[in-house]
Write a sequence for this structure.
């Protein structure tokens, strides 16, 4: 299992960052398109099934397992080559938000063979994704 932990400060209140989290197609690197999303996403028990780019186009089922707006969001995602548990923690800080993401990824099937390369890619994607999320949240009024 690979574990990633990344943080970023965003110059918007947690409520605005929470709204940005609800549209991963705008910021999550590798997110290609939504297949099915609950209208209340990211509320408790909702889902956001989507197409994700790994080394191939992969259908991913995503289920919210914990939602405490606007401070904690957890979801489990399952694809053909991986499963992951994501936790987003949002804390108010100096008029903005400190966001921390924890990502625990388990590779499966062919994903196990590419695990070292995939783990490197995931780390880079989180750097890009968090900067995209910051830009998306800071553009909201």
């Amino acid at each position: 299992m690979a574990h990633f932990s990344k943080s970023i400060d965003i110059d918007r209140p947690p409520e605005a960052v929470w709204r940005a989290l609800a549209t991963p197609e705008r910021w999550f690197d590798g997110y290609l398109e939504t297949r099915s999303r609950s209208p209340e996403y990211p509320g408790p028990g909702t889902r956001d099934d989507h197409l994700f780019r790994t080394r191939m186009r992969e259908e991913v089922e995503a289920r919210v397992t914990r939602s405490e707006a606007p401070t904690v969001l957890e979801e489990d995602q399952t694809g053909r080559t991986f499963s992951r548990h994501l936790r987003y923690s949002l804390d108010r800080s100096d008029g903005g938000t400190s966001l921390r993401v924890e990502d625990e990824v388990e590779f499966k099937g062919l994903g196990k063979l590419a695990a070292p390369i995939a783990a490197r890619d995931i780390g880079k994607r989180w750097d890009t994704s968090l900067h995209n999320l910051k830009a998306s949240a800071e553009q909201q009024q």
About this structure: The mean pLDDT is 95. The radius of gyration is 14 Å. The helical segments are 14-21, 115-139. The CA atoms of residues 9 and 136 lie 13 Å apart.
